[in-house]
Amino acid sequence: MLPLKLLSVTDQVVNHLTAELARGQWMKTMPGKDRLAAELGVSRMTVEVALRRLERDGRLLGRGKRCKRLIIPPSEKAARPMRIALLLYERADIPRDYLIKLPFAFKNLGHTFDFAPKTMMELKMDPARIGRFVEQHQADAWIVMAGPREVLEWFSAQSRPAFALFGRREGLPVASIGPNCRVAIVAAVRHLVNLGHSRIVLLGRRERRWPEPGPTERTFLDELKAHGITVGRYNLPDWEETKEGFQKLLDSLFRVTPPTALFIDDYTLFIPTQQYLADRGLQVPQNISLVSTENQAGYAWCMKEVAHYRWDSHKVVPRILRWAEAVSRGHRDVRQTLIPAEFVPGGTIGPAPPP
Length: 355
Description:
The chain has helices spanning 9-22, 33-40, 44-56, 97-108, 127-136, 149-156, 182-194, 206-209, 215-226, 243-253, 267-279, 316-328, and strands spanning 60-61, 70-71, 83-87, 112-115, 141-145, 162-165, 175-180, 200-203, 261-264, 289-292, 307-310, 336-340, 342-344. The chain is an alpha/beta fold. The strands form 3 sheets. The chain has a 6-stranded parallel beta sheet, sandwiched between helices. Helix 6 (149-156) links the parallel strand 5 (141-145) and strand 6. Helix 1 (9-22) crosses helix 3 (44-56) and helix 2 crosses helix 3.
């Protein structure tokens, strides 16, 4: 006689929902967990865990918060395991919280994941060199982080699925997610202008400047113009993407007409900027105001909280997983997701210093 196996409440819910799906109780989408919890007399958490198990079994497809899960027809249940590689902009990106979560999330879905052994910076941002590297790397799908326009154009033209994590993906047939910072930068510029600032500079990475300014950068320049500020290369300077090139840029900015406010488009650039200012005895915000376009957990520990943009980075991993699940079943996913961002004033902004 086989030993008696006692099922947990979650197991019972999974079995019940599986049977209901098999007999076609629901069509296209699952009911919400509130309704299911009330009908089954269990907690919402129990229902949520059961629904996630059905997602892992390939019976449901999650679409994020406030969206009902899609029911996958039996003919589409089988998802092929994929090898997914992530092409970093530079190695300094690895500690970001959403990148730390990705390997475990893909493992739970049955896919393998790794960081590509070289970054775009190490490949000189050269699309031809990146293309040869991708062809040599055994991956079924690629995630490209902060890709320049010409690199994402190359990926979008390939048969191999690709996902743009940030980068210049506007108008390209490639799935993506990233913050929409245009509202935030307008609010930040207006805040600075109201404090008397007119020499305002945005330090951006190459993919945001070339071959022409991106949507957020164009919004920045347009907002300066709206306040009667003459704009040019001074406000969105070009520079060589090296440590020495960034030092040379800062030297040129502060040589004759130093800015009174700096937008810094990458956390990697924020620390060397602070160091440069400290070495020259320039105080924040007495001599210069700083705005970071990223939200780092470390900012909360600063005695003067850094003025920054805030957006919900927790949406990144679920969106990437939905893309991976879709392409693993042979579906084409090129939906581009924008996450609203808002400007958060902080202690690194003050009135413009006197001439």
